[in-house]
Design brief:
By secondary structure, the protein is of the alpha+beta class. 48% of the residues lie in helices and 22% in strands. The strands form two sheets. A two-stranded antiparallel sheet has the order 1-2. Strands 3-4 form a two-stranded antiparallel sheet.
Length: 105
């Protein structure tokens, strides 16, 4: 998390739209939590210090854990669970990327 990255890279990392990430980065910059370096039309962001870097790493880890827990609950509520990924097109054209099975209870 100490390296700098542009909005597109950060958006891909966190799974959000670049416009939303840009708005969040603007607020983090106003709070002096991130520094920005401009190179032509590109802006590269980095945490403003080691303590901010650790905080962002912890925040991302917490978010990933929370999203995984929510996905597990949603799968149980639907009565299905994703069991393994298959390459696209394995089951034929237009086939789903994931194979789902009904949970036996």
């Amino acid at each position: 998390m100490q390296d700098e990255a542009n909005v597109g890279t950060i958006a891909e990392l966190v799974g959000a739209k670049p416009a939303a990430v840009s708005r969040h980065l603007a607020k983090l910059r106003m709070a002096k939590m991130v520094d920005v370096r401009r190179e032509g039309t590109f802006a590269f962001y980095r945490p403003s210090g080691e303590h901010i870097s650790r905080f962002l790493v912890d925040l991302l880890e917490h978010t990933r854990e929370e999203l995984a827990a929510q996905a597990a609950v949603a799968a149980r509520l639907r009565g299905t669970e994703r069991i393994r990924a298959l390459p696209a097109g394995t089951l034929g054209p237009g086939s789903p990327r994931w194979y789902w099975c009904r949970l036996e209870t």
